[in-house]
Amino acid sequence: VMAPKMASRIRLPLSTITLIAGFLLGFPVSIGAGVVVFDRITTVGTPVFLKILTKGQFFSQGGRRVEVRIGNRQSHHLLSGGDGYAYYKYLPRAAGYEEIVAISDGDESSGLLLVMKPGETALVIGTEGGLRTSLFSEKSKTDSQEALIQLNKQFRIVYFTRWLGVSLVKNWLRREKYPASVVLRWRDQEVFKKMKNSGIEVGVVIGSAALMKAAPEYVKGRYTFEKSTKATTVKDWTEIVRLIGSDNGTANDQRNCNGRLQ
Fold it and tell me: Quick one: which of 206, 111, 209 has its CA closest to 152?
C-alpha cells in the first residue's frame, strides 16, 4: 500500500512567515505596531499618495488622528478611515530621498520616499530571490554588498519583498549595511504598472524566477540565480556586475543627484 502523497506546498499566513523569518535572522518581531508608514517611489513633478496605516494590538483601527511630516517640512494632520488607512497627496519638486514620519496616539513610525529624476533608471532586486543566499552565507553577503554598492552608482536601487515583510527586510538591510533605499511589497505585475505610471523606468531586475515572470517585457536586464526562460541565469554577483557593465544602454551615472538619505 502506497503512503498518501504529502501536500507539495504548505501555505502559511504572512504574519507567521514574518515571525519565523524574524527569529531566524535574530530580529525582535512586533506585530502590534500602532502606526505603519509605507515606502513610496515617484518622479519629480509626479504626485504620490503617501500611505499610513493605524492599528490596534493586532488589527487595523480606523478613526485615529495622524500627524504626518515629510522631511523638515510642516506637519499635516489626517484622520484614518474605517479601514485604518490614511492618505496624503504630495507633489515632490526635487529628486532624492525624503523621510516620512507619522505619529498617532503616541505611536511613531517612519518610511522612505524615493523621488527619481527623469531619465534615471531603477534596478529592482527581489530580496527573497536575489539576496536569499546572503541571509546565511558570509561570502554571498559580501559579494552582494560590494556589487550593490557599485551598481548604486549607476542605478536607483529598489528592493522588493514578497514574503519576508517590509519591516524585517529594512532592518536586515540596515544592519548589514546594504545601500539604503525603499522596500516595496510585490505580489504580481501590479507594482511594475504603478512604477511605470509614476514615470519610473526599470532597467534591471534581479531576483527569483517568479519575479522574472512578473517583470514587464520591456525590462532588458533580467538576472536570476534560478532556472528561468524569462531571464539570464547567473552563478554569482560578479557575473551580474560584468553583464550589466557590458550593456552601456541600461546604466546611467547618478552620482550628481542632489538627493541624500539622511
Answer: 206
Mean pLDDT of 149-173: 94
Is the Cβ–Cβ distance between 144 and 131 less than 8 Å?
yes
**Which residues, listed in sequence order, are joined to residue 69 by a DSSP beta bridge?**
101
Mean pLDDT of 50-65: 92
Q: Given strand 40-43, what is the order of strands in its sheet?
A: 40-43, 107-116, 96-104, 65-70, 76-79
Query: What is the distance, to the nearest Å, from the Cα of residue 83 to the centroid of all Cα atoms in its chain?
Result: 23
Q: Give the model confidence (pLDDT) of 3-37 as tens digits.
A: 444 444 444 444 444 434 443 444 444 454 799 99
pLDDT in tens, 67-79: 999 999 889 999 9
What is the structure's pLDDT at 247? 66
Residues in the chain: 262
Q: Cell for 12?
A: 502559511
End-to-end CA distance of the chain: 65
Strand partners, 195: none
Are the beta carbons of 103 and 111 closer than 8 angstroms?
Answer: no
